[in-house]
Design a protein that fits this description.
Dna Ligase, domain 1, 5-stranded mixed beta sheet, 4-stranded antiparallel beta sheet, 20% strand, globular
Length: 377
């Protein structure tokens, strides 16, 4: 039985995510940028923006001069991370061995799954349909017996599902550009590839047929290069160890800089994370408060929680929020991200009693559990 590895890729993941969030962007020229600073770079561009001359890697200052019609959107990492995690949990229905390899990219070990599905193509079709139905994004799937060839397939083949049969890896790679091979990106290898004008993988394949010649040319890179150009990859699909986080986020129904409304939202988020910390009997040594403004700018500050009662956490969260909120623009999104948890054992003390705030928090926890409330009103 040959191993079977799927590579699922959501091309232009950031663009698809933004257009899924805001339908008005679906036909507009847009570009995702690393920063609004003039030295920021264009991370991703839509076809409409490309038609106006924008390109990936272009400086923001040049992009603004090139096109006045394209909308420049800041890189919304919190949105992409949450959507990526949702896709990850969705495709785990098909196999427990899923390895994320960046936003919108996943390896799936489907070895032996032919006993469940009529064919690997049918399994791929089911996965694609589920992602489209549940997430609203369009994936492509590469199928082969290893991670390398499946990943290259999704980067060069436009088909929604493409399978490379075992034994056809060398033939599949032969006409492709040499840059699809990972070891080619090593500086010393790339310098030699350019000098010898090796534009296609088949040219490298012919060079490395002789192990002696390969070592003479590529030195210590000869063996990995020879394996890669023939589609050989021994790495296995490994499920990632997800970092433990508590994340609470609110997207305001209307962008605002009204202090009363912002205080109410920060209070609600604070009480939710405080409740979750008490349920886990933990405090958080790493706290990140992130603000997204209506014009796309993002600011964040970091702190920590030494206690897990509502009042203490609200006080610290509001302090961090005010520190982050340095602009007069209206706010669209507030996010609180906790990590670096430390267990706090609850034990009886001889002389020390719970503070009033601890008792209030405990009483509110009872109400939350009883009435399934997110936070007190």
């Amino acid at each position: 039985m040959y191993p079977t590895v799927f590579h699922l890729r959501l091309r232009d993941f950031e663009l698809q995510a933004e257009r899924r969030l805001d339908a008005s962007l679906r036909t507009r020229p847009i570009a995702i940028i690393s920063s609004h600073h003039q030295n920021g770079t264009v991370v991703s561009v839509s076809k409409e923006a490309e038609d106006e001359g924008l390109r990936r890697g272009m400086k923001v200052s040049l992009a603004r001069r090139m096109s006045h019609g394209a909308q420049l959107l800041p890189y919304n990492q919190s949105l992409y991370a949450r959507l990526n995690q949702y896709i990850y949990s969705t495709i785990q229905r098909f196999t427990p061995i899923v390895e994320p390899s960046g936003y919108g990219k996943f390896y799936l070990d489907m070895t032996g799954m032919e006993r469940i599905y009529k064919s690997h193509e049918q399994a791929g079709s089911n996965i694609s349909k589920l992602v489209q139905d549940h997430v609203g994004l369009n994936p492509v799937l590469g199928i082969s017996q290893n991670k390398l060839v499946s990943r290259i397939s999704t980067s060069v083949v436009p088909d929604t599902i493409h399978r490379i049969m075992a034994g056809n890896e060398t033939q599949f790679l032969s006409p492709l550009d040499t840059l699809v091979i990972p070891t080619v990106h090593e500086p010393t290898v790339w310098k030699l590839i350019k000098f010898l004008i090796l534009n296609q993988v088949r040219q490298i394949q012919s060079l490395v047929n002789s192990a002696t010649d390969a070592r003479r040319l590529f030195g210590r890179y000869a063996l990995p290069l020879s394996r890669e150009v023939h589609g050989q990859d021994l790495s296995v699909v490994r499920p990632s160890v997800m970092k433990d986080h508590i994340v609470e986020q609110t997207v305001l129904t209307e962008d605002t800089n009204d202090t009363t409304i912002l205080w109410s939202e920060v209070k609600r988020l604070s009480e939710q994370v405080a409740f979750k910390l008490r349920q886990r009997s933990q405090i958080a040594k790493k706290v990140r408060v992130e603000i997204h403004y209506t014009d796309g700018f993002k600011y964040e500050v970091h702190g920590q929680f030494f206690k897990n009662n509502d009042a203490t956490i609200l006080t610290e969260t509001w302090r961090l929020f005010q520190k982050a909120n340095t602009r007069r623009n209206r706010i669209r999104t507030i996010l609180i991200d906790l990590s670096g948890f430390i267990q706090v054992a609850k034990q009886m003390e001889l002389f020390e009693k719970d503070t009033e705030q601890d008792r209030i928090s405990s009483a509110m926890d009872i109400l939350r559990k009883k009435y399934n409330m997110e936070s007190p009103q």
